Amino acid sequence: MTGGPAFELRGLTKRFGSVTAVDGVSVEVARGEVVALLGPNGAGKSTTVDMLLGLTKPDAGAVTVEGGSPREAVDRGLVGAMMQNGALLGDVTVGEIVDLVVSTHANPLPASEVIARAGLENLVKRRCGKLSGGERQRVRFALALAGDPKLLVLDEPTAAMDVDGRRAFWAAIREYAAGGRTVLFATHYLAEAEDYADRVVLMRHGVVVADGPVAEVRAAVSGRVLKAAVPGATETDLARLAGVTSVQLRAGRAELACADSDAAVRALLAEFPQAADIEITALGLEEAFLALTAEEAAA
After folding, report:
1. Domain ABC transporter: where (predicted)?
2. Which architecture does CATH list for 7-213?
C-alpha cells in the first residue's frame, strides 16, 4: 500500500477498572514522519503504544497501521518495536540473536546490514549477558530493524547510552527515516525530541494536550527566558521583578521565565545595574512541556 497514513488512532480509549488511562486519543501520522510522544509518568504513553502495537485492545476507538489492523501489520513485518526492557537471551552471542530474529521474517534485511546499522560490528561474538546497558539498547534496536519495517516504534531508545552512543543512534534513525520510513519514539530526554523529531505529541492524563511541529508546540506557550549574570542577587530578589514568573539561580547566573521580558529586563537593570551578559530567548521545548502539563494538571 502506497497511500494513506503510516498509522491512525481514532478515539482510542482504555480503562483499567475506574482509571481511564487513555481518553479519546486521535492522532494521524504520515509516512516518513519522525514523531516524539511525550508526557509525564502516568500520561498514557505506554498504553497508547501498546494499543498501536496490538498488545492491548482498546475499550473504544480504532487503530489502523499501514492500512490494516496492528496484528496484520506486525504479521507482515511492517512494524518493528524497541521496548526499553525487552529481554535478551543471555547465553547467545549478538551475532546469533540477530541471525535468529532475521530468520523469522519473510523479507528481512541481511543480518550484516542490521549489525552495521546498529553499530554492533565489534560486539558480534559477545554474549548478550555480558553487554552493558547501552550495548543492550543497540541490540534491541538491531532486532527492531531486522524485518525492514515501515514503522519503527521506540520506547526510551537511548536509555543507558552514553553521549557518543546517542549521537550514533540518532544518526542511524535519520538514515532509516530518510528512506520514507516512519518513526514514533517515547522519551524523557526532551532535548532529543527538540533536536530529532519533526513533530511532538504531548499527553497528560490520557489526552493529547499538544500536537504539532516543535516550533508550534513552543509557540503555544507565551513568554521568554531571560538569562544574565547577576552578582549578589537572591532568588527571592529576582522573583519580585516585574514580568518574572519563575527563577533559577546557579553560581550567580540567573535564568528567569518571563511573561513580559521587556518589563523584566527593565526591572532587572533598575534593581541590579551590575547585571551583565544578558540574553533573551524563546521558551524551549522543556519549558513548553512543563507549562502545558502544569496547565492541564490545574484544569
Report:
1. 7-230
2. 3-Layer(aba) Sandwich (3.40)
Estimate to the nearest angstrom the gap between the alpha carbon of 31 and the chain centroid: 18
Q: What is the pLDDT of residues 4-55, one digit of tens each?
A: 899 999 999 999 999 999 999 999 999 999 999 998 888 999 999 999 999 9
How far apart are the C-alpha atoms of 6 and 64, rounded to whole Å? 8
How far apart CA 271 and CA 112 sit, in angstroms, is 64
Distance of alpha carbon 290 from alpha carbon 190, whole angstroms: 11
| Type of residue found at 47 | T
Report the Cα–Cα distance between both ends of the chain, in Å, rounded.
Answer: 42
Sort 156 into a burial class: Cβ within 10 Å, 0-12 / 13-18 / 19+. Answer: middle
Locate 291 and state its grid cell: 507549562
